[in-house]
Amino acid sequence: MKAIVDHQKCTACGVCVDVCPFEAITLQETILEISDECTLCGMCVDTCEFGALSMPEVGSGPDVDLSAHRGIWVFAEWREGTVHKVSHELISAGRKLADKKGTDLSAVLLGHNLDPDLFQELIAHGADVVYAVDHPELAHFRDETYSQALAELARRKKPEILLAGATSMGRSFVPRVAALLRTGLTADCTELDMSDEGLLLQTRPAFGGNVMATIVCPHRRPQMATVRPKVMKTEKVPGHEGRVETVDLPESTFQSRVEVLEVLLETDQTAKLTEADVIVSGGRGLRKGENFTLIEEVAKLFKGAVGASRGAVEEGWMPPSHQVGQTGRTVAPNLYVAVGLAGAIQHVVGMQGSKIIVAVNKDPQAPIFDIATYGVVADLFEFVPALVKKIKQEQGLA
Q1: Residue 264 domain-assigned?
Q2: Is there a contact between 152 and 249 (Cβ–Cβ < 8 Å)?
Q3: Does residue 299 form part of some domain?
Q4: Quick one: which of 304, 253, 247 has its CA closest to 280?
Q5: Which tens digit of pLDDT belongs to each residue from 174-203?
Q6: Spatial separation of the C-alpha atoms in residues 252 and 95, rounded to whole Å
Q7: What is the mean pLDDT of residues 121-134?
Q8: Which of 36, 88, 312, 389 has the fewest CB atoms in 10 Å of its CB?
Q9: Which residue range forms the structural domain that includes residue 308?
């Protein structure tokens, strides 16, 4: 779908051509053409003073009874016996939304040999109901089985809202769930709220992080969103009670073309960026890969993780698992130390949610200082060794 042109009203002024951020509009002599690159952002419609551009109307369709859908769901990400922290964050956020809307909050747990203690943990964070699907084919994550199971459960219970973490798992299979349910999905949200009409307000960075877009899904159900880890606060609800409902699904739900032969657990603790409370990242300013030992030493002293810019990864100085940014990991630690990083917008959108940002760069005009809580204008090869020495003294290691 793309924007619609009323050629009788169009004057071929070309203003919309200039304003389109995706270069989807071209002017062929006096005829305006819109390509499939159009994302329906609406900027051209807002700009056209002649009313020649409009958005296509999207109806709910005869097969969608919006009133039949009730309740808020959170997909509790279970992997190898544990639940990801983002699930607790989402349940805490979902609890507030459910109270505001006056509806129930449910957690969905898919896996095998599920520990009952996990159910109580989800209830303690605010879940009224825990839907548990325990099956051998869910022992290890696979896109097909997980998406089919969650979609089938959603068809049966008809939730109004479905939330999941924007983790590697969530980003992989939740879009499949949205496609199976023929509904919309807003990815990488940083804020959730409820409108006066009861619609989920899904806010996420857009246009490279230059604007924050709030998106709604008024015509389809469930309203779906994935949320970045560590942007929501985790809060337990004292004395909260809930129930557990074990759900059996048809065996056909668990059929997959993929067979898991072996699962290799992550042994490199420094690569677990999304869970780290402290991250020390390096960029091209380190000049060569060997100098990342400086970054690794600081991260070790802080008991944190090592991050890297896209440039450092492309140079081969660090593995892609350490990349922070729009094309890497989105992180929000308590402390983010950026060393030798210019602060390109693609990197900033992946770490701007950090509570405290410390930037070290010898260029006082580096963009990273625009978002830094504390900035150090210094040669990193002089500053970092001095910082390491000071930390070791404070910790009694020197």
Answers
A1: no
A2: yes
A3: yes
A4: 304
A5: 999 999 999 999 998 888 999 888 899 998
A6: 33
A7: 92
A8: 36
A9: 269-394
